[in-house]
Specification:
Structural class: alpha/beta
Low-confidence stretches: none
CATH superfamily of the largest domain: Aldolase class I
Strand order of the largest sheet: 5-4-3-10-9-8-7-6
Number of strands: 12
CATH class of the largest domain: Alpha Beta
Oligomer: single chain
CATH architecture of the largest domain: Alpha-Beta Barrel
Strand content: 15-25%
Number of helices: 12
């Protein structure tokens, strides 16, 4: 079954020129409820539709011997377990509190589950589930999220097309009927030459019945060009890490957007939507130009009554207030019903009826 759109919270998602924007707070709150709420408020003020967190416990996510896969010049922690342990203090009650605060701010609450228990306590709180790139091969987690019946968003960083196809089949077999695939590159940060945004078009061709989005790790410029390009390529869901201070060391601050970045991007996206439009513009908007910039059939010289109209005595000139030259072949060969002055616009009354 094809789905041109899906419902996430109060939003109908599927128009790439009105994308569903997820501010990925992740663990940029660094364990502070006060900061988490500040980030939610700033994401809402910036124009995001959802504020997303990450629900995990380090011991369930990584072994104590798991090496880093990020730029250690930006985040010096060399163990995944040690990094995750720094920010895994939020529990079920904390996420319930954050979900309530999101509602108060008019923004959807989301959080990526990294274990099956997290799916259970997040289910009443989220309008959709997000599967992280690293879990696109995690069959039990995909099944558990799919069985909730909620929309399922799956990032595809470091994945092959067969792996993506397998994840989709797994989700569908477990009951997911609304699925979106997000192109992603697991480089933190992602150099622009590695972003490969053309994959959005590949995913659209390969999975034409699914919504396609983009989860971004490129360091943002003034209008977040990576999101701009993905929008123009048809991504209808956009996700990017979010922070209140891009200069903070470590974690995901160094490749995140802030409120100002988001506001500028949303303004540009709105402008693109107006420029591109979605239907043929009304001719009424061009009424004056239509009348005055188009041409009419005009006498190239004085024409006497009874004279035959020809290529030699007629021409086409502006304005378009007389007989349109679209009728040129209907006029040529007929007779003038009256004398016509040079440079006069021809009228139908000045043409003898063919039956006369």
């Amino acid at each position: 079954m094809q789905h041109n759109s899906i419902i996430i919270g109060r939003h109908t998602v599927g128009n790439s020129f009105s994308p569903y924007i997820i501010a990925e707070i992740g663990v940029n709150h660094e364990g502070s409820m006060h900061l988490a709420k500040r980030l939610i408020a700033e994401a809402a003020e910036g124009g995001a539709h959802a504020a997303k967190f990450q629900s995990y416990k380090a011991g369930k996510l990584a072994s104590k011997h798991s090496p880093a896969y990020w730029d250690t010049n930006k985040e010096p922690t060399t163990s995944q377990y040690k990094l995750f342990k720094k920010y895994d203090n939020f529990g079920q009650e904390d996420y319930e509190e954050l979900a309530i605060y999101c509602k108060d701010c008019g923004i959807d609450f989301m959080s990526t589950p990294f274990d099956l228990e997290a799916v259970d306590f997040l289910n009443p709180l989220v309008p959709a589930f997000k599967i992280a790139s690293a879990d696109i091969t995690n069959v039990p987690l995909i099944r558990k999220c799919a069985q909730t019946g909620k929309p399922l968003l799956m990032s595809t960083g470091a994945s092959t097309l067969p792996e993506i196809e397998f994840a989709i089949q797994t989700a569908r077999q477990a009951g997911a009927s609304h699925i979106a695939i997000l192109h992603c590159v697991l480089n933190y940060p992602t150099p622009i030459e590695h972003a490969q945004l053309g994959m959005i078009l590949v995913l659209k061709r390969t999975f034409p019945d699914l919504l396609i989005g983009y989860s971004d790790h490129v360091v943002p410029d003034e209008t977040i060009s990576s999101l701009e390009v993905s929008l123009l390529l048809g991504a209808s869901i956009l996700e990017k890490h979010f922070t209140h201070d891009k200069n903070l060391p470590g974690n995901d601050h160094y490749h995140a957007m802030n409120k100002l970045d988001l506001q500028r991007f949303c303004a540009k996206a709105s402008r693109y939507a107006k420029l591109i439009g979605h239907k043929r513009p009304s001719i009424d908007n061009e009424k004056s130009a239509r009348a005055n910039a188009r041409r009419s059939i005009v006498a190239a010289r004085s024409i006497g009554k009874g004279e035959i109209f020809s290529e030699e005595n007629l021409t086409a000139k502006r304005p378009g207030l007389g007989i349109s030259p679209i009728h040129w072949d209907e006029v040529i060969g007929r007779q003038a019903a009256e004398n016509i002055d040079e440079d006069s616009l021809l009228s139908w009354s000045a043409i003898l009826d063919e039956n006369d």
